[in-house]
Amino acid sequence: MTVPDFGFELIGTDRTARRGRVTTAHGTIETPAFMPVGTAGTVKGLTPEAVAETGAEILLGNTYHLMLRPTAERVDRMGGLHRFMNWPKPILTDSGGFQVMSLNSLREMTEKGVTFRSHLDGSKHELTPERSIDIQRMLDADITMVLDECTPHPATREQTASSMALSMRWAARSKQAFVRRPGYGLFGIVQGGIYIDLRHQSVAALTGIGFDGYAVGGLAVGEGQEIMFQVLDGTLPALPEDRPRYLMGVGTPSDLVGAVQRGIDMFDCVMPTRSGRTAQGFTRRGKVNLRNARHQDDPRPLDAECRCSACRSYSRAYLHHLFRSEEMLGPILLTWHNLTYYQDLMAGLRQAIAAKGLDDFAAAFYEAQALGDIPAL
Description:
By secondary structure, this protein is of the alpha/beta class. It has 2 domains: 7-269, Queuine tRNA-ribosyltransferase-like (TIM Barrel), CATH 3.20.20; 278-371, no CATH class. It has helices at residues 48-53, 63-68, 72-77, 81-85, 97-101, 129-139, 157-177, 196-209, 225-235, 253-262, 271-277, 309-313, 316-324, 329-354, 358-371; strands at 7-14, 17-24, 27-31, 33-35, 59-62, 91-94, 107-109, 114-117, 124-127, 143-145, 185-190, 213-216, 245-247, 266-268, 280-283, 286-289. It is globular, with a radius of gyration of 21 Å.
C-alpha cells in the first residue's frame, strides 16, 4: 500500500478561522482537532476503542515518560507505539522538553541539551534535540515535535529572548536529525513568551528552517486567557497559511473556541481526562461537580444532548454514587463523557466554519455556558 505524503489541506475559512485536513501515514485528521493525551501509551481509564468512539482521530504520546518506561527501544522492538497500544490512527509525540524542564533541581541544561535524573528511580539521562527526534522515530510518531526550552512564566524580556534563541538553535538541530519518510511530519515550536516581537523573531527563524507544521508553545502557563488570545492575535498572522497550527497544552472549552476563531487548527490538553478522574464534568451548560450532594437523587443524564455511554445509560445520581463510593467506573464514565464533549465541540466548530457561521456558533456556546447547570426540580 502506498503511503501518502504528509500534508495539510485548507478546506475552508470563516474570517481567520480555518477548516482543514491533515494527512499522515496512519490516516487523516479533520481540523480543528483536539488530541486526547495518552502520556504513557494510554489515555487513562479508557481502551483505545473507547477513545476512538468519542471521535478522536489522533492521540498525543509523551517522549519523556515513554523513554523512561518502557523505553523507546522496547516500543520500537514491539512494532512502534501504534501497535504497542493498539491505536491504528495518527499519533503526535511531544519532545519531552516540558516534562524535563519541570524537574527543576533534577536537571541541568546546556547548549547541547538537558541532563536529568528520572523521577522514577533517579537514573541519569540526557535529552538532546537529536536524541529526542530519534526517540520519537522509534515510537513511530506521525507528527514529531522539535525539542525546545519551555520558557517559564513570568520571565523578563531578556530571559525570554535568550530562551527563545536557544529553542531556535535546537529547532535547527532537530530538523537536521529528522529522518524524512512518507506520511511523517516535523513541527517547529514558536516561543517568545508574551512579547509579540520575540514571537515574530521565532516565527521568522522557524519558517527559515522550514517545518511541516508550526506549534505555539509557552502559553497556558499562568498568563491568563486574555493575554493568551492577545499573543495569538499577534502571532498567527505571521505563520504560513498552508501549514497546520497547533496550540500546545490548551485548554478549557472557551479556550478552544476562542483559539479556533483566531486560526488554530490543533489542540491537546489533559483537562478533560484529568477532570474526569476528579468528578468534574464538562457539559453544554458549563462544568458540573458530580461530588456535589445535589446530584444524589437526580435521575437526569449529565448532559441530555450528549451521545456518550455515560449520558445514554446512567443518571447523575449513579455517577454521584460512583465517585462518593470511590468506584473506578466513575472516572472511566466521566472521562469517556468529557472526551466525547470535547470531540463534539470540535465537530461543531468544523461545521460552523464550513457554513460560515462561526460567530453565531460561538455566541450560542458562550450563552449556554453562562446560563450554567440547572438543578433538578
